[in-house]
Description:
CATH superfamily of the largest domain: MetI-like
Number of strands: 2
Shape: globular
Radius of gyration: 26 Å
CATH architecture of the largest domain: Orthogonal Bundle
CATH class of the largest domain: Mainly Alpha
CATH topology of the largest domain: MetI-like fold
Strand content: under 5%
Strand order of the largest sheet: 1-2
Helix content: over 70%
Mean pLDDT: 80
Distance between the termini: 50 Å
Number of helices: 26
Amino acid sequence: MRQTLSIGHHRLRAGSVWLVFSALIALTVLLPVLALAMEAAQGSAGLWSHLLATTLPIAFVDTLILLSGVGILVAVLGTSSAWLVTAYDFRGRKILEWALLLPLAVPTYIIAYTYLDILHPVGPAQSALRALLGYSSPREFRLPDIRSMTGCILLLGFVLYPYVYIPTRAMFLTQSSTLIDAARTLGVTRNAVFRRVALPMARPAIAVGISLALMETLNDIGAAEFLGIRTLTVSIYTTWVTRSDLAGAAQIALALLAIVVFLVSLERRARRKQRFSSSAKRSQSFSPYKVSAIKGLGLFAAGSLPILIGFVFPAIYLTAEAWKRVRFAGISPRLYSEIFNTITLAATATILILITGLIVAYTTRLRSGRISQWLFRFSTMGYAAPGTVIAIGVLIIAGGFDRLISHLALSWFNLSVGLVLLSSGVALIYAYMVRFLAISAGSIEAGFGRIPVTYDAASRSLGETATGTFRRIHLPLSKTTLSAAALLVFVDCVKELPATLLLRGLNVETLATHLYGEAARGTYEEASIAALAIVAIGILPVIVLSRVGRRL
């Protein structure tokens, strides 16, 4: 009896240790937000009124217009593409199913960088169009400038629509054909079935996809700045970097964070009000309708348009520019150091994020109460915040620690150590962890959910501790999940621009920051190799998603 009580006490203590570590991780994620609020409170009331009178109105309106336009465009493109490859059977449909994911490999700042050169008045597209129409110079004929709100909405929409396409297609595939057949027997046309049956049932998935696309829009800094759109995110960056006004940047960041909270609440409210269920055992999955060869060709062309604009044209352009650059001047030596910096920072952050994600996810499995659930939510809230907001919060914390370390080193050892956290890359890795922990923890939690609870019970009945069960059962059975999570986190760290711009060490350049600098100077050909490398790395999770999609 005493032995049983001792084992039970030991198990409870082990679970408590995991809970404590999970609480520390949640606190670590929350610290940048708390620091942001404290820094914003230190700003004078006059500063806040000045921001309200000058910066915030323009930035808020531009952000609202951009979000509305991108939201509508991704909803139309993502939903229609998902219905196209789900409802109709035509030659090339299997290719479209995975090819529609390819724009995910192109970061928003690269799509803007690419089309700024392609659609330049003396660029290849307009030059070819003028030659075709018989004009000789841009003064005689030129297309509207891509540097506009319309241009920004179009470019972001054609890159971010897969966020809607993925969950909506999954929803269409799992819908019961019984409902569709019942509607058809009542004389409803196939287009009307989409509007009256399929679309209403897919609203929760569409809402999730739109919210993710809008989060990425808010996180963007490169595309908006390149295209002349003064969003809240761009205003945060310019307020801090150009004006050296950290308090003002923190106040704008809080305003942006309020918009994020509103969007997340709106998305959850939409999902809560739209609930549909069907019996998977009794219903037959939705089967596509076979169309004629002519109509199938038209459908394939329509489905290919987002792929061409969002991936094919930019990829061809980057490949051609990179090849011209290599033939003319070879590969710059500094590119190798930038690749090394990019891989080192992303790999280090990925290892840290995987470890913390494992702790948070396993704590939720061990302790399924409200405390562990809230800790999980707090730990994963960083993904909803734009990288610029996270970076400002981390900058405040890292700056405070650096000042403390410098003061102690000077007082105790008479040494000047400089900016330890900010110059070493620790602050940037911390920002990556806060930003992308949700990807790791969410993926690992889903993987743990596939492991039967009876395995845990059997391990515990044999006297194994919670940590031993984790090491001997959950880790070996989660190798595939961990590999997929590591890949997604690594690629997101490579592509992340706002946090990297603000927190990279002195004289430290990554592929993303190199591309941003060259594009800002207008030297597009210098950045083509870096852009192509980022796109090539970004294709890796697309391959994983396409394999998952084929198993739906």
